[in-house]
Specification:
The complex is a heterodimer of chains A (about 110) and B (about 110). Chain A has about 110 residues and is an all-beta fold. Chain A contains no helices and 11 strands. In chain A, strands 2, 4, 5, 9, 10 and 11 form a 6-stranded mixed beta sheet that branches. Chain A has a 5-stranded antiparallel beta sheet with strand order 1-3-8-7-6, with no helix packed on it. Classes of the chains: A mainly beta (about 110), B mainly beta (about 110). At the A-B interface, β4, β5 and β10 of A face β4, β5 and β10 of B.
């Protein structure tokens, strides 16, 4: 079945620096790759996603890149702010299920003022 | 976001007890899911349902059962709770052709 690996598990950056979180997936049939942000004590919320027919997508300070050949995708956050501190999860669709998401184990991002 | 509501928000139960977690949604989504979250393990899929008559096992279905009572309602049951089922449980919904999930607020379950 699908396996999603996420790195690093923790990331600490200074305010204003960039942060990059990387994920790899195993199922070549996966076609949708979302990123979720979970603040302490809250539910995960979708922040950006990308489909397999696109290589890059941007939304203000966040961007996601996808390399289908290498089966990896990355989240890029520029000009980080303290409110970006949270746990971030990547996910990929399970190819055989037509829509289930398999999640990575998460990255705890800390942005220091 | 009140679109996906989970009850209860917190629950402490004893080993061996049967417990039901409920999820209801007003988003009109066909697809509903139950995940559990454990520190360092991310979100793992327990069961999912693509419509009212469809129930499927996920990665970690042992010890759990579900019921899809209506398009808007999806319940998760622990028939005989055990301590390693202590976790944060999330319900989620999605549309058929849009895989982006909307999560509920979660149920924190403690089995003692």
């Amino acid at each position: 079945g699908e396996n999603v690996e996420q790195h690093p598990s923790t990331l600490s950056v200074q305010e204003g620096d960039s942060a990059v979180i990387k994920c790899t997936y195993s199922d070549s049939a996966s076609n949708y790759f979302p990123w979720y942000k979970q603040e302490l004590g809250k539910r995960p919320q979708l922040i950006i996603d990308i489909r397999s027919n696109v290589g890059e997508k941007k939304d203000q300070r966040i961007a996601v890149t996808l390399n289908k050949t290498a089966k990896h995708f990355s989240l890029h956050i520029t000009e980080t702010q303290p409110e970006d501190s949270a746990v971030y999860f990547c996910a990929a669709t399970h190819g055989g299920s037509q829509g289930n998401l398999i999640f990575g184990k998460g990255t705890k991002l800390s942005v220091k003022p | 976001d009140a679109d996906v509501t989970q009850t209860p928000r917190n629950r402490i139960t004893k080993t061996g007890k049967r417990i039901m977690l409920e999820c209801s949604q007003t988003k009109g989504h066909d697809r509903m899911y139950w995940y559990r979250q454990d520190p360092g393990l991310g979100l793992r899929l327990i069961y999912y349902s693509f419509d009212v008559k469809d129930i499927n096992k996920g990665e970690i279905s042992d010890g759990y059962s579900v019921s899809r009572q209506a398009q808007a309602k999806f319940s998760l049951s622990l028939e005989s709770a055990i301590p390693n089922q202590t976790a944060l449980y999330f319900c989620a919904t999605s549309e058929k052709d849009n895989y982006g999930y909307t999560f509920g607020s979660g149920t924190r379950l403690t089995v003692v």
